[in-house]
Amino acid sequence: MRRVYDFHGGIHPAENKHQSVRSGIRSAGVPAQLILPLSQHIGAAARPVVTVGDYVLKGQVIAEAAGHVSATLHAPSSGRISGIEDRPIPHPSGLPAPCIVIDCDQQDLWTPHQGVADYRDCDASELLELISSAGIAGMGGAGFPTAVKLMGKPGRSVKTLIINGTECEPYITADDILMRERAADILEGVAILQHILQPEETLLGLEDNKPEAIAALREAAASASHVEIVTFPTKYPSGGEKQLIEILTGKQVPAGGLPGDIGIVCQNVGTAVAVRDAVIYGRPLISRITTVTGDAVATPQNFEVLLGTPMQHLLDLAGLQPERCERLVMGGPMMGFTVTNPQAPIVKTTNCILAPTTAELPPPPPAQPCIRCGLCAEACPASLLPQQLFWFAQGKEFEKLEQHNLFDCIECGACSWVCPSHIPLVQYYRASKADILQQRRDHAKSEQARERFEARQTRLAQEDEEREAKRAARKAAAEKRTQLATQEGGEDPIQAAIDRAKAKKAAQQAGTGTEPAAAASALDTLRQKLEKAEQRLAQSHASGEDAKIVAALEASAERLRGKLTEAESAASEAGAS
Ligand code: SF4
Ligand code: SF4
């Protein structure tokens, strides 16, 4: 017998599990319409690859993963795409979100698919690719893309693979029924996970309140000695990843850390079956087991249901009595949230729909002031100080909340459950986490904006410097040309350009007759320059200067003559008019 450990805190709420395991898993069939949210997992929403009007086959990709942490989406049945639009989805916000809608043709026709002949011939990267393209996301609740979780960090080996069959939340029996009916499938999936991770040991942990599941797993494991089935006393929330790790190994995941930091990987039993179906049969994740329970349904039970099926379809099959139903909850009474629209679909993480009566799940009484009894701290499985977190959350002291490890809170609700003042503690923590995450996003955005601004300023400064350097180079070149021309006794080109501009202006003025005095003065200047140039030319002829210099002087005198002629004719025309 393997030694098991206990974790701090925990509670024992009424289990209410027996109601939904009186019968086996029942198929929920194909509904008239399937509604598939593009985001059913942690990470970026999938990107549609179909358009309205397309006909799709069961198992066909309808939206592809958009980035590293994302999950592909497949058509759960054949039919025509009738919409890509916002629809109600199961989310605590109650807000609609983008979905692909399929009008099912009831033919349930598969796209061609096949698995690998023998997974043992495949290396880890090939199997991870298969798992990723099958769109598998953790089916125990959080919905983290499985392939990403299995990849872990490069160079880090896995000591222990833990398969989570705990299902500690009251009412939910989806994993229990799966372990009872498909124990061999679970172990086949576990063998594939072992082939990928090569762990030193593999432990499948479940609470002792599931005797049928324990027997089925032990029987299946008898012929597959690669997995140790470990049972332990029932206590909520043993199914929390960190709590289960502590129970099975005695190790604690460091605050703010991940199981991988201590060489452990956890996967849910439902995920193991999804991995097996993808690798051995090439079937993507298009269905799951969902418990429908609560006193407001006539026959609580577990359904194998196509993803995208409206909750109302399952509630009808289970015999919902709407007049008795106080509210709908996705998940269990501890960690679940209210679903406001029964047309919201089943998604990859929907393990339970709870339809309770008011007597069964009465609304909480009004909150009273905290009496500092400390019961919340005693119950907290994460060894946090819920009362202090509550004070900080009320005062929006986000830094202190982070210092007190708010993000280690698994939102199990044990603190609220024991609080004699009925303070909805978890709601405060959820709201604070959302505020802090929003702050982080805002901060990241403003950092990006600041970096963009600084990069632009640097670029502009560089451009200025380059312009200045070019200007200086042009100036130096011009000065050099002037110097050369002067040395050779020719006309200063810059001065010549200024003279030309002046002459042109004078000619224009002479043409318009606006400034006759200025035009006359410009003509005088040109005549003087020409005279000087001709004298210089005569000197050069007389002294027998170099032919190049003589030619430059002749060209200069010729230019001046031309300009003078031009200016004189413009002036005489102006006079004539
Ligand atoms: S259990 Fe409730 S009343 Fe008691 S210390 Fe915690 S928050 Fe305060
Ligand atoms: S909800 Fe958070 S703070 Fe409350 S008991 Fe659970 S882990 Fe502790």
Descriptive notes:
This protein is α/β, with parallel strands linked by helices and about 575 residues long. The protein has 3 domains: about 20-355, Rossmann fold (3-Layer(aba) Sandwich); about 375-485, Fumarate Reductase Iron-sulfur Protein, Chain B, domain 2; about 490-575. The chain is built from 16 helices and 17 strands. It starts with about 25 loop residues before the first strand and ends with a helix. One iron/sulfur cluster binds near residues 372, 387, 419 and 420.
Question: What's the structural blueprint in terms of helices and strands?
Answer:
Layout lengths: L25 E2 L5 E5 L9 E2 L6 E2 L4 E4 L8 E2 L4 E10 L7 E9 L19 H10 L12 H6 L8 E5 L9 H8 L1 H15 L3 E7 L3 H12 L5 E5 L8 H9 L14 E5 H13 L5 E7 L7 E6 L4 H7 L10 E3 L6 E3 L12 E3 L20 H5 L6 H9 L3 H6 L10 H5 L6 H63 L5 H20 L3 H28 L3 H30 L1
Bound molecules: iron/sulfur cluster (2 copies).
Q: Give the name of the CATH architecture of the largest domain.
A: 3-Layer(aba) Sandwich
Strand content: 5-15%
The end-to-end distance, rounded to whole angstroms, is: 123 Å
CATH topology name of the largest domain = Rossmann fold
Q: Over the alpha carbons, how many angstroms does the gyration radius reach? A: 41 Å
Quantity of strands, as a count: 17
The proportion of residues forming helix, as a percent range, comes to 40-55%
Determine the mean pLDDT.
91
How many helices in DSSP terms? 16
Task: Outline the low-pLDDT stretches.
Answer: none
CATH class wording of the largest domain: Alpha Beta
Name the CATH superfamily assignment of the largest domain. NADH-ubiquinone oxidoreductase 51kDa subunit
Strand order of the largest sheet: 1-14-13-17-15-16
The count of domains is 3
